[in-house]
Design goal:
Blueprint: H1 4-26, H2 31-41, H3 52-58, H4 62-77, H5 82-89, H6 91-102, H7 127-147, H8 150-173, H9 179-197, H10 200-217
């Protein structure tokens, strides 16, 4: 009933996320964080920088509407996968819990080169990162694996990696988050999604139909 390798990834990732969270709780300001952030902010990101406002926009309350639309699409086109999509949404609960426990201050203009975004919540972990990782992975697994050929799925993972990385850079570039905030958000999302996927009765509902579709095309 358990996919042991995937469960092992979940446990390892959760352990690293826990260790990082404990460290950040005891060290709200990490000098290396500021150094990395200043390097990110002093880099010319070219056309990629045009996407940073979008990631800031989609991660706020609008993200909930986006999640509802995605869930409706999954119910319409791949109803068997609803359990994974519903469970993935609970990653937001981890953000609420951890952010309230740690309540880390945001970067300030005296610590980094710029702060153009001023969210009111705790800096750690990055809720935008948890959201982007969760949404892109759910879209790919629940809908991409349903309709895309094998090469399309591989390309989909490249797109997921690009979007997650671009969001991470954007959160630091605007001064909204420290690098460890982004890393913590990524680890929390990956730990939760791999934990869900490690239950075969969940993953079979997501991937089972995709495997049959691949066999039919070959």
């Amino acid at each position: 009933m358990i996919n042991r390798p995937l469960f092992g990834v979940a446990v390892l990732t959760a352990a690293v996320a826990t260790a990082l969270s404990i460290y950040v709780a005891g060290h709200p300001f990490i000098p290396q964080d500021a150094e990395v952030e200043r390097d990110v902010q002093s880099t010319n990101w070219g056309p990629i920088a045009l996407s940073f406002p979008f990631f800031s926009w989609i991660g706020d309350a609008k993200g909930f509407v986006f999640e509802v639309v995605i869930f409706a699409a999954i119910l319409l086109f791949n109803r068997r996968a609803w359990i994974f999509a519903a469970g993935a949404v609970l990653s937001g609960g981890w953000y609420v819990l951890v952010s309230h426990l740690i309540n880390r201050p945001r970067p300030t203009p005296s610590q980094v080169l710029r702060v153009t975004e001023h969210p009111g919540a705790s800096s750690y972990p990055s809720g935008h990162t948890i959201f982007i990782v969760t949404v892109t992975v759910v879209l790919l697994l629940c809908l991409g694996y349903r309709f895309l050929p094998r090469w399309g799925r591989l390309a989909g993972w490249v797109v997921v990696a690009f979007l997650v990385t671009t969001n991470a850079v954007g959160r630091m570039y605007t001064g909204a988050h420290w690098p460890t905030d982004v890393l913590g958000g990524f680890l929390i999302a990956v730990a939760w999604l791999t934990f869900l996927g490690s239950f075969r009765w969940v993953s079979s509902r997501v991937l089972g139909l995709a495997h049959r579709s691949s066999s039919a095309r070959t």
